[in-house]
Amino acid sequence: MPTPRQFSKKTSTSNMLRLKANAGSPEAPYRVDFILLEHFSMASFTVAMDVLVTANLLRADSFRFTPLSPKGDRVLSDLGLELVASELSAEELKTLDLLIVCGGLRTPLKYPELDRLLADCAAHGMALGGLWNGAWFLGRAGVLDDYGCSIHPEQRASLSERSPQTRITPASFTLDRDRLSAASPNGAMELMLGLVRRLYGDGLAEGVEEILSFSGARYRQVGPGAKKSMSLHLRTIVELMENNLEETLSLDQLAAYSGRSRRQIDRLFQAQLGTSPRRYYMELRITKSRRLLQYSDLSVMEVAVACGFVSVSHFSKCYAAYFGYPPSREQRLGE
């Protein structure tokens, strides 16, 4: 079987699911544990976890994670929902890469047992983080000196008094060397995407961001994607393509509908997307076909027709060129 064809940059993130990881990627999973404090922000915690879980879907075993609590019992979130958490263990903590303290608006500023724990973790070079007001506990433990951090506005003044050497920023998240903090659910998403990007590169981070762009709408004002960097003319052409995948448009039709010449269209695609209009259009159709195969009960023939292919054989050949196997071997989750 020949090596699968590579997608161009814009469509590659839409096709990462269950593809083989790059050979140069780190092999050992990155260990992240979350200390859940009473009345922790469920939204901040779940969106942070969502990023890590989605990263594992795109690149298997990128992360391992566990919710912890000081007493190893059920923890009540700010929504009144309980979550079962494991007990903090000194031996377990030795294997961690990152420990994140998850607080919330009504989280009591107590837990003195965290001071020694966080100080010991910092002494061993562990990365530390805080969600919502989690940075307050890091500051009290003395592990935020000379670091920037983000914390919910309600606790900014208190943290400033407790840890005057900490640089408190108004940003929703801060990723400063081995200290990570977020002041809101939106910040938690951006923070974890930043961690994914730092560890595994832009490709995986963009893939996660694209998958979560709809479910993350409540946490962010704008979605991801290359369209933000496209010129108006190119965006118009791309939208024409996206809206005409079953009955595809010729390059002449695209030129006529967009008011640009064929040469101008080709230059726009090469300059901004690094590929040709024809190849980009094909990648859109292949991407749609893969989603239909995975998440519908349509037959291979019906999927081929829905994506503008004149025959099943042509569809199979094009599909195999990108994924290394025919559509008949695709995983079917809708059946």
Short description:
This protein is an alpha/beta fold and 335 residues long. 44% of the residues lie in helices and 13% in strands.
Descriptive tags:
335 residues, alpha/beta, seven-stranded mixed sheet, 14 helices
What does this structure look like?
With 335 residues, this protein is of the alpha/beta class. It has 14 helices and 11 strands. The strands form 3 sheets. A 7-stranded mixed β-sheet has the order 5-2-1-6-7-11-10, sandwiched between helices. The longest helix has 19 residues, at 277-295. 38% of the residues are buried. Residues 18-25 and 215-226 have low confidence and may be disordered.
Give the distance, in angstroms, between the N- and C-terminal Cα atoms: 27 Å
| Shape call | elongated
Q: In angstroms, what is the radius of gyration? A: 24 Å
Helix-strand string = HEHEEEEHEHEHEHEEEHHHHHHHH
**Spatial strand sequence of the major β-sheet:** 5-2-1-6-7-11-10
Strand content: 5-15%
Structural class: alpha/beta
Low-confidence stretches: 18-25, 215-226
Helix content: 40-55%
Number of strands: 11
Q: Mean pLDDT across all residues, rounded?
A: 85
Largest sheet entry: 7 strands, mixed
Number of helices: 14
